[in-house]
Amino acid sequence: MVAIADYSDLKVWQEALALAESICAKSQAFPADERFGLTSQSRRAAVSVSSCIAEGNARNSTRDYLRFLYMASGSLAEVETQLILANRLGYLPEAEMNVLLPQSRGVQKLLQALKRALTEKNPATVPPLPVPRSRFSD
Asked: CB pairs under 8 A, 24+ apart, for 98-107?
């Protein structure tokens, strides 16, 4: 087994970075009038995944690490939504979407595995789930 010196040794970070590179490359073909819209938003979300993994890894507690991994998962869901929308709008060909979505889902599986490993190592570090609030409550 290879020791993990820092976040750059993590396969999930490496795959998330590769996904961000792919999305940045593919989004270059989006229309110019989307430069500050879907192009920018999809790139930011894609970059956020690897950034959250790195930032969480640099934190001093497993609880914080998990919190950042959950944010990375949220950004990944955002990326997938933006890929589907780009395809529906005709900016991203079906064939390219069918490469990027499985790549994204592969990162999601790696994220889930890392979250599970950290949680099993110390179950007390799991961040509490937010309590749903009714719009009628104070």
From this structure: 99/22, 100/19, 100/22, 100/23, 100/26, 103/15, 103/18, 103/19, 103/22, 104/19, 104/76, 104/79, 104/80, 105/80, 106/15, 107/12, 107/15, 107/16, 107/19, 107/49, 107/76
Give the CA radius of gyration of the chain: 17
pTM comes to: 0.84
Q: Would you write out the chain's pLDDT as a tens digit for each of its 138 residues?
A: 445 678 999 999 999 999 999 999 999 999 999 888 999 999 999 999 999 999 999 998 999 999 999 999 999 999 999 999 999 999 999 999 999 999 999 999 999 999 999 998 876 666 555 555 655 554
Number of H-type helices and E-type strands within the chain: 4, 0
Domains in the chain (CATH in brackets) are 7-125 (1.20.1440.60)
- Spatial CB neighbours of 95, under 8 Å, sequence gap ≥ 6: none
